[in-house]
Each structure stands twice: as structure tokens, then as C-alpha cells.
Amino acid sequence: MEALSNLVAGFSVALTPANLFWCFVGVFLGTVVGVLPGLGPPATIAMLLPLALKLNPTTGLIMLAGIYYGAKYGGSTTSILLNLPGESASVVTCLDGYQMARKGRAGPALGIAAIASFVAGTFGVVALMLIAPPVSRFAVRFGPPEYFALMALGLTMVVFLAGKSMIKGLLSAFFGLWLACVGTDLFTAESRFTFGQMELLDGIDFIVASVGIFAIAEVLANLEEQSGFELFKTPKGIRNLLPTWDDLKQCRFAFVNGSVVGFFIGVLPGAGSTIASFISYGIEKAFSRHPEKFGTGIPEGVAAPEGANNSETGGALVPLLTLGIPGSNTTAILLAALILWGFRPGPLLIHENPGLFWGLVASMYVGNILLLLLNLPLVPVFAQILRLPYYTLYPMILGVSIVGVYSVSQSLFDVWMMGLFGLLGYTMKKLDFPAAPLVLAMVLGDPMERALRQSLMMSQGDLAVFFNRPMAAAMLFFALVLLAIPLTQRVRSWRVRAVEQEL
Amino acid sequence: MRRTAWAIALMVLCSYAAPGWAQGFKPARPVEAVVHTDPGGGSDVFARAIADMLEKEKLLPQRMNVLNKPGGSGATAMAYLIEKKGDDHTIGFFTNTWLVVPLTRKEAKVTIHELTPIARLVLEPMIAVVKADAPYKSMTDFVEAAKKNPGKLSQSGGSVTAQEALYRLVIQKATGAQWNFISFPGGGERISNLLGGNVQLLMAQPQEISEHIRSGSVRVIAVLGDKRLAGFPNVSTTKEQGLNIPTLDQARGVLAPPGVSREVVQYWEGVLGKFVKTESWKKYLADNQLEDAFLRSQELAAFWTKQTELLRGLLQEAGVKLVR
């Protein structure tokens, strides 16, 4: 009940006209930033920091947090419409979202993304409000062996992303793991596969690679078709612009899955929303009654990852606000903002500044509603982009990609890398290699290797460290189960075939 | 005697003349401040805090905009500053990694000595902390425990060339104790692994961990080096505890691209010299438990040379391959 009275007090803070206004400014800017690839929430928050520091701290934090979760809403838009991921957390959304758009269902895809974001985003806030302290105790118990197990679990998702040929899927994943090796080895400070290039010392930027592999490759592939073709079926009538009741019913499980997975992965420092979105997509597919339809444009494939990356926001704020521990770039800059305002982020922050915490929580409820109201009416508007003729659309995609990738770290090298990855993606498309396993392996490779080596350093090389710890052992077991699922399906199909032959 | 008198007279003259030259330069457009971390990283936050204070204290006629050039632990930012040769509206914020990276990475094309020193601002001391329920009351307790159980205890930290890694090395060398060093890229993970009991020791800058100290979840067992800290008057230094190790405080300060004129350097020395006397700066230092360590351009150049040699020796002992 204490939470309730605190929340009421929080709403009295969040609903003052000034706070409402800045909350709107935050979520609006967040949406814009999310739509554009490259420029992400950390850079935007950094740019607005001088402004925010002049505001009252609670108001400022409400605005900055608005940018953070607003960007997650916006990130899906270009993924769905142009196969161009606006944020790294929206890469998975390309898989089914863009296919829905190609089928003429861009509107419903955008609508599902907005609704999933709203449901899961709200879930994240509720969880942040109710269970933050116990969950943060869970998060600190998560050591390197548990991270390794989690990443291993994530990597088993490859078998669900592989598509028709498992061999090609695995090759694609191995290539992704190799790409993840590029850069500086944290443990020895030596360079790996940098070819003497200073720009490669920090590895290959994930968003650069995925914009190349998805957006540029898509443009290249479509250019082949000479002229006069209709790329997208143009949606007609307002009814086709929004998700149907059936779509929503189909996504029931995806909403829950995205909310829960996103929140708990968000809580873990260093895991992040990209991993959350992949894992929730994988889980969705593993437990689906029609796994073969994933990747062909089904609403669950959009709802699960979009939900996960929004619920992750609530989760990521848990260690930040309860322990003063930032788990990502964005929360690190929020931490910096708190310090510059004169707060002392740490275990005592909420206790000593209840107004700040509850005002923020309440504003996040409001912000999620604002985002839904802002995004749903925009769906038909955005869907109109697909009416553009290809000779306008393609240069636009290329332009947005180049500007976006350049803005990641103002480096032309990144733009060339994007081009290279575009060619790679195009070649893979031609040879029928799935891109998703590569991207997944690229995200997971680095944290997984790190966690493995950290664990073995802790245990002095003893592999038992993964089995002695219950959480790690449970996740590794679960990963084995997931690996076995496609195998059983194959055995069943052999048996069916064998029975048919006998008949 | 006469020659000394002349020299003194000349020096006095010069010191009067200096402000006259300094007035020769004033930023005519916003100043770009290059940092090597992403938004939210240590250098970024430091630069933004200073930009904010300079604006409040009205010491700079123009805005100071922070430009993030992350990559290669400083290598990218340094290369960018070299490209900006002669640009008097660009400055950079350096840290120790700008000294270390050129030593260890052949991809780094630039050393800090090619850039123009302006001023050192702070030294960041480090403290050693353990979980509140751990049995160690001092660094020597920890060292003794590590001696009894070689390889069983662990410390969390950043990369193997970071200060905490070098501190572990010099303490191990001085005492013969052995414990593991586990690298985590994010500061948050280093703390959460200590709180979660996955590692037993963390060396950090006071402001990173002070709230956990205040809430009682961790305990400080030593200040690394030879000077006690105002924030922890009761915590003894490693020197007091009988560990004979060098002090490796993180230095932060300002530099400029190569080829900027003497007036520009003097202008910045003047602005920063006034800045370090302001109340906002003093409060900032106290809040973050930093040590005021203002040095002007020439002394800074000497500091860089000395520090580089110290680090080179330590890295060699650590078995890190050096390229310069």
C-alpha cells in the first residue's frame, strides 16, 4: 500500500504541466531519434544534457528518460518499412516486420510494434516500481558463469533462425562469431584481426554491420529487378492500416514473453536490449505452434522483440536507481546526469529522494501512454512512405543509411564498412545464407567469450564452475533442451516419411 | 651577480608581458572539446562538468561543445587531434590511457608527446574495497589471505593496462602474493561482481564506489599510495600498511592539437588557472574526492615524460608487449 500512496504522490509530480510538457518533449525526441539509424539515445541525451541541467532535476530526468524509452518505440519504424534498423535493438524486428510490409501489412506491423511496446513498456515500469530491490539482489548474483550460460542459451537461438539449411545457418553464425572477435582483446590488450587499422581497435560496430546487411543488401537485391515492378502491395483503406483483433490475439504470448524476458535481461548489467530482443524472438519461435512461419511476416515475430526492447528499459533502470550501477551506455549517461544534478546515485538514492524516483516512475506510465497516442496515428502516415516509387525510395534509404552510420562516430570508415557489409549481405542473399544467425552471433560473440574467460579465470580453469552454480546449470540445461527441439522435429519428419514409404 | 639580476629583471618583464600576449587570442567561435569515451564515460562526464562550470563562472566567451571520438582507448581521439593541427578552437581531455595506448598498440599512430600540453587539472586517487562481510580489514589482510590461498581470490577491474591491474602487479611483486585479475569492460559490472561475491577485491576511484561505502555494503581497506583522503580520514594508506608501491593516480587535463600558437596555450593556461580557483571547481573536487593537481603547459610536458617511463617499466614487468 505504501507503493500506492507513493505512486499517487509520484503522479502529482508527473502531471504538473511543466513535467507533462517535458515528458512529451522527451518521448517525441526519442521517437525521432529512434526512427533515424545511427544517432542513438546516448548521444541525444548527451546533447541535451546542458538543457536538462538547467531544469529542475526531476523534470530533467523525466525528459531524459523519455528520450531513452521513446527511442525504443521509434526504432521499429524503419526496420519494418525499409528493412533499415533504426536502433540495434530493432534489428530482429526486420526479420518479420519487413516481410509483413512486403505483404502489404506495413500498417498492422507498425501498430503491433507500438502496442507491444506499450504493453511491455508498462510492464517494465510496474516491475520497476514493485520489485526493484529484490530484483537488484538477483542481478548482482549473476556472475560470469551465469552470463556465459545466458549467452549460450542465446546462441542456441541460431537453430531457430537458420531457415531451410542448418549447415548454412551455422556457417553464417560462425562467420558472425569471427566478426565479433575483431578488435582489442580485453584480457591481453592485444589486437585481433585489426589489419593495422586503428578504426578496428574497438571492433566492428553492430549497427554499421546490420544496416549494411539488411538495408543496403535489400536495396541491391531489388535493383536487379530492372524497372516497372511493384515492390510493395499498397495497403488500401483505413482498416488495413491497423492490426486486426486476430493479430492481437495471435500475439498474446508474445506480449507476455517480450515483457518478462525484456525486463529480466534488462536488469542484468551488460546484457542489453539487443540481446533481450533476440532471445525473446527465439523463445517465441521455439514455443510456437508454427515455427516455420517465422521470418515470413507474422505479427508475433514483431511483437516479441519490440516488447522485449521496451520492457528492457524498466529493467535497466533497476540497477541504476537501486545500486547506482549503469548497465549500458544510456544508463551510464543518465548516471552522469544524476551526479551533475548533485544526487548521489547508489543504494540510498530512492530512500533519500523518493520524489525523484516516484515522479520518474509515474512519468513513465504517462510517457508510455503519450507514445502510444503519438505513434498509432502516425502509422498510416509512415505507411505512406511505401507508396513512393523506387527511384525515390532507394536513394532515400541509401541517404538515411549513410547519414545514420556516419553519425555513430563521425567516421567515414564506418560508411565504407557499411558498404562492405551491404555486399556481404547481398552475396549471402544470392547464395541463400540466412543473415539472422550472423547478426545474432555478432551480438553474442563478444560477451559470451568474455564471460567464458572470466569464469575460467575465477575457477582457475575448472569447467565445473558452470555446473556447480544452479542458475548457470539450469540455463545450460535449458539451452540443451532448445537444441534438441528441432532434432526431435527432424526425427518425427523422418518417421512420417518412413511410414509414408511403407504404405 | 649582475647577470642574475638581469635574469630576474627579464623574468619579471616576461611575466608582465605574458598577459599582454594572452590577450592576443580569444575564441571567436564555440570551442570543440574532444574526449575519447562515449557519452557517459569518465572523460565525457568530466569534460561536460567542466563545460558547465566554465559557462556558469563566465570564464569562456564562447560555448564549449564536447565531441566524442571513442575508439582504441584514446587512439582515435589522438589521431583526430593531429588532423586538427593548428586549429586554435579545438582542445582535448586526456587521461592516462593516452599515455599507455601508444606504448602497447601499433595501430595507434600518435603519441601524446606530439600534441600540445596545456594544463593538468586533477589526479584521481584509488582506493581498495572489499564486501562489507569480508574478513579483510586492510590491504595487508587481503595480501596474507591471498598468500595462504594462491589463485583462490579474485579482483575485478578493467583492461590489463588499467591502473588497478598495474596496482595488483606491483603489490604482488612486492609481497609475493597471488590472486586473479578479472577484466570487465563496464564499471558497473566490476561493482556488481564484488557485491555478488564473484570477486573479493575492487580498486576504484572513490566517487565510483562512495555510495556503496556510505550505505555499508562495501568497506574501504586502503588508500592506494601515500596520501590519506579527506573523504576517508580513518582509512590508512598502503604505505602506512607497509606496502612499498608507487602511486599511480589517474591524471586528467587539457591539451591542444599540434602547431597551435603560444598565445593560444597561454590563453587556456590563464582561463584554467582562474577556473581552478573558483568555488564551483573546489566543490566539484570535494564532491568527487579528486585531488587538485594543476600544472601548466611546461610542467605537464615533463609530467608526461616521467609518467610514460614509469608506466613503460610497469607494463614491461606485466609482460605486456610494447611497440614503442
Task: Walk me through what this model shows.
The complex is a heterodimer of chains A (503) and B (324). By secondary structure, chain A is mainly α. In chain A, 75% of the residues lie in helices and 1% in strands. Chain A has helices at 2-14, 17-35, 41-54, 57-82, 91-102, 106-141, 144-156, 158-161, 166-181, 206-223, 245-250, 252-267, 273-286, 299-323, 329-341, 349-352, 354-383, 390-409, 412-430, 436-458, 465-468, 470-502, and strands spanning 183-184, 191-192. Chain A has a two-stranded antiparallel sheet with strand order 1-2. In chain A, a hairpin with a 6-residue loop joins strand 1 and strand 2 (191-192). In chain A, helix 1 (2-14) crosses helix 17, helix 4 packs antiparallel against helix 14 and helix 6 (106-141) runs parallel beside helix 14 (299-323). The longest helix of chain A has 36 residues, at 106-141. Chain A is globular and about 70 Å long. In chain B, the strands form two sheets. Chain B has a six-stranded mixed sheet with strand order 2-1-3-10-4-11. In chain B, strands 7-6-8-5-9 form a five-stranded mixed sheet, with helices on both faces. In chain B, helix 6 (163-175) links the parallel strand 6 (154-157) and strand 7. The longest helix of chain B has 22 residues, at 297-318. Mean pLDDT of chain B is 87; it is low at 11-22. Chain B is globular, with a radius of gyration of 21 Å. The termini of chain B are far apart. Chain B contains eleven helices and eleven strands. Chain B has 324 residues and is an alpha/beta fold. Chain B has helices at residues 2-22, 42-56, 75-83, 97-104, 139-148, 163-175, 187-195, 206-214, 262-275, 279-288, 297-318, and strands at residues 31-35, 64-68, 90-94, 116-124, 126-131, 154-157, 180-183, 201-204, 218-224, 250-256, 291-296. Helix content of chain B is 43%, strand content 19%. The chains are: A mainly alpha (503), B alpha/beta (324). At the A-B interface, helix 3, helix 6, helix 15 and helix 20 of A face helix 2, helix 3, strand 7, helix 7 and helix 8 of B.
